[in-house]
Amino acid sequence: MGKVVTTAFITHADCAKHDMGAHHPESPARLAAIEDHLISSGVGATLDRHDAPQAAVSELARVHPLEYIEAIRQASPEHGIVHLDPDTAMCPHTWSAAVHAAGAAVLATDLVVGGRAENAFCAVRPPGHHATRTRAMGFCLFNNVAVAAKHALEKHGVERVAIVDFDVHHGNGTEDIFSDDERVVMTSIFQHPFYPYSGTEDPAPNMANVPLPAGSDGRALRIAVEKIWLPALHEHQPEMIFVSAGFDAHVEDDMAMLRFTENDYKWVTGQIKEIADKYAKGRIVSVLEGGYALSALGRSVVTHLKVLGGL
Ligand SMILES: [Zn+2]
Questions:
Q1: Annotated catalytic, 130?
Q2: What is the widest separation between alpha-carbon atoms in the chain?
Q3: Among 10, 53, 89, 223, whose CB has the most other CB atoms within 10 angstroms?
Q4: Low-confidence ranges of the chain (pLDDT < 70)
Q5: How far, in Å, from the CA of 236 to the mean position of ligand 1?
């Protein structure tokens, strides 16, 4: 048990209306599974819930060129589904879901920087960490965690941030956006070789990437964090930490072949919290990325939130 703190929980109804087709794993049922487990665990009652606003175009434009933002808006269909890449599609609700997902991350940053919450979790879709400055891919349209980090840096004058990504896939979009940005250190683990097949070739010096072979379990996570992440984080002394919280490295998740459990997410969240307590006044903004095995996703998010809340 840590000190009990206020955790903001931010979502929006339209995030559950974004629908890429009946058999797509990045489905509305993911958010329903999280809500179910918040109720059954009792953790939901401890959270300070907020409705996400829309991100302003100016907030998205800190990360994505205006032409890209406008192209996504223009691609939005009136009926049916339109594909942006083989994995990534828009339905009539997707534009609203995407701007509310990014807006959730902006609000989370405002709440945490303003001292209205110690930390925050954004239960949003579409996810963001594969979205590069100019390309939608891997289920992602706007890079939510990057929009949040830029908001902290450029609106609130935070000088140094860390982005911690424990999704099973490499956060290539976030890396594209922040490579060589000295204000940012990004630490990540990901299955390799695996989609999007990046992160190992000559990453920038502010990227602490740890590729893990298929079959790796929580012991490999602990070694990666202790040997690579923690030294990078202690050196950078971030004033705020952003988390790309994907739970698709769970052993029950068929999307990939890592073997993490809730206990591993508990441990890694605790490590992140210790760094935040030491350098960042506890300030953490965590944004949902992947996680496709519904029960495992719900249980893992509950575990993550328990540690964030000191429960
Ligand atoms: Zn993923």
A1: yes
A2: 50
A3: 10
A4: 1-2
A5: 26
Q: What is the model's pLDDT at position 136?
A: 98
Q: How confident is the model at residue 5, as a pLDDT? A: 82
Q: Is 115 helix (H, G, I), strand (E, B) or coil?
A: coil
What are 283's two structure tokens?
């300030």
Nearest partner of 45 among 86, 103, 4, judged by Cα: 4
**Catalytic residue (one of 18, 50, 64, 130):** 130
Long-range contact list for 175-181, CB < 8 A, 24+ apart?
175/199, 175/203, 175/204, 175/207, 175/209, 176/132, 176/133, 177/63, 177/132, 177/133, 177/143, 177/146, 178/146, 178/149, 178/206, 179/203, 179/204, 179/206, 179/207, 180/204, 180/205, 180/206, 181/206
Residue 45 CA to ligand 1 centre (angstroms): 28
Show the DSSP H helices in the chain as ranges.
29-41, 57-60, 66-75, 94-113, 144-154, 172-178, 218-224, 230-236, 262-279, 294-308
Q: What is the pLDDT of residues 15-52, one digit of tens each?
A: 999 999 999 999 999 999 999 999 999 999 999 999 99
